[in-house]
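Following the same procedure, backbone shapes were mapped to integers, as reproduced here:
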Amino acid sequence: MARLRKKRPNRVLRSEKHPESADPRTNPSRWRLLDQRGRQTWHYLQSDEETKEWPQSIADRYFLGLPTGLPPLPKPETPQKSAQNAVAYFSQLQLPPGNWACEYGGPLFLLPGLVIAWYVTKTPVPNHISIEIRRYLFARQNPIDGGWGLHIEGESSVFGTAMNYVVLRLLGASEEDKRIVKARGMLHKLGGALNGPHWAKFWLSVLGCMEPEAVNPVPPELW
């Protein structure tokens, strides 16, 4: 793990050096996290009136990387004081139903299936969702070879590169964007999407970009 981290410096900072990183972004002050008995969904408010009626919570600001407005905690002098600081801080992040939210970031193979399903079912993708998905994937792109891995710390693979390349193109990224060109070159270098695993071939066949015959059948007994 230490070796991977040494090879992979902060990708967000790396990607911000590219001219294309002046991509559109949403207003972070308009996002709200709704927790309905543990079911957590993000909502983007469209008007100033809505933001006044539904103010951001401390938890909202925490997960968005915004200043929480919480006072600084006293410097702990003992392990017990440190634990008390932790309790005091995280108690402020508790959501109304009594639970805590959790960011499920890291895997790079789940989002492609969702976006492809949206596309084939002709489900409209709100612009604010499309913008942030593109920003996230470009920020997690390998700055050296232009690919993506199984997760944000993984080596570039056919699976990660093919699927996230497809997602970006479906959501409007230009084929002439230098980051897209670099990703396409990496996919070719890896041998193309036919070298991908089962899930990649399955989703590409659902999309209509690959013949179903390329997908190896999986007997239900294996599940």
